Structure formats: C-alpha cells, structure tokens
Amino acid sequence: MLRSLVGLFIVSLILVCSPAHAIETKFGETADPEASTNLQQWWNKDHQARLFLKDGSLAQAKSSFEAAVNLAEANAYMDPGLVNSLAGLSLLEHRRGNAFESERLYELAMRYQEGYAGANSERFAAFLPDLAWLYCWHGNHKQAEILFRRAIATIESQNPEDDSKVSPYLVHYKAFLKQCGRTSEAEKIAVRLKRIESKTKTVR
To answer: What pTM was computed for the model?
Structure first.
C-alpha cells in the first residue's frame, strides 16, 4: 500500500511539472560522431542504452549505460563521452523512481563538465536545463528556477543582446513558468522570444 502511494506521488509530481508536452529534453543524447571513429564504440553503447530506455528495458539500458561510462573513462572521452552517459544514467534512475540517485548522477556529470569546459562556458550551460527539469520533476522548483536562470545568464554574458543562441534556454524557462502557473511571467518571455525571432529575420 505504501509503495503504491509513493508511486502515485512521484507520478503526480511529474504531471505537475513535466516538459513532455512543451519542449524536448536530451539528457546527454548526442548525434552519431561519424567523423570520429575513436568515439564510435562509446557512442554505439550510449545510443543502445537510450534505445533500451525508450523501450522501457531498464535493466538492459543500465548495463549499456555503464558500459558506455567505462569506455568513456578508459579513453578520457568527456563531452561527448562521460558527461553524456552519466546524464543518461540519471534519466534512467529517474524512470526507476530513484530521485536521489538520479540527481546525484547528473550533479556528478556537471562536476566533470565544470572541470572540462568551465562553469561559465556555453557547454556547461547547455546541460543545465535538463538538470533543472530533473529538480522540477522531484518537486524542487526553487533549485530548478535557479538553474534555468543561470543557463540564460551564461549565454547572455557571452553573446550580443537578444542573440538567437539564448532562445532555446528561454523556451525552457517559459515552459517551466507556464507549468508552474506563472502565466504572466511566461508571457513576458514569449514576447522576448518573438522579438528575438523578428530581429533574427531582419538580420538575415
């Protein structure tokens, strides 16, 4: 009975704050590195894990993700590589209902990314929205918002005002605000997105 109630609670959190109907989350998923044969073996394992995960084969996904992590560590593949597979493992643990472990794994991935690319880099910022959604799914909206805003601030600090690079991050933040019932704030983001889109078309 208790286990059933816990399961219902987790599902309710996901329904309250889920980006599934608004935006796409990647959790480290990356394109086939066709030009780099050195990365191919790692990518094959990581990609296989993600296919298992999409099919709901969690045990096989876990095994493949762990194999991808081992390959990345052995060959010093960081991004793409270890960071991506740890993020994938994080999503898997979330699907298994292990909130603490899923957050621990993604936070570990971010520590590796911080050491590799730097905490103020665009590559670091690129991984922040999915961690923010993870916190959101687990009911930690305050921490989620901090990360959404940090990602936006990082991109803004390294690009011209209203550069199109910031748009994907604004889309994430708008979806978060809307799903948390903060519609007026979400509308302000929508207005800014339209302005950026218009500016981009004008430049072209």
So the answer is: 0.88
Closest to 107 (Cα-Cα) out of 140, 77, 72, 154: 140
197 token code pair: 């889109």
Alpha helix (H) ranges present in 17-139? 37-55, 58-75, 82-95, 99-117, 122-126, 128-137
What averages of pLDDT result for each successive group of 10 residues across the chain (204 residues)?
40 46 84 83 97 98 98 96 98 98 98 98 98 98 98 97 96 97 98 94 68
Report whether 71 contacts 40 (CB < 8 A): no
CATH code: domain of residue 89: 1.25.40.10
Q: Could you tell me which of 175, 148, 140 has the C-alpha nearest to residue 19?
A: 175
Give the number of domains in the chain: 1
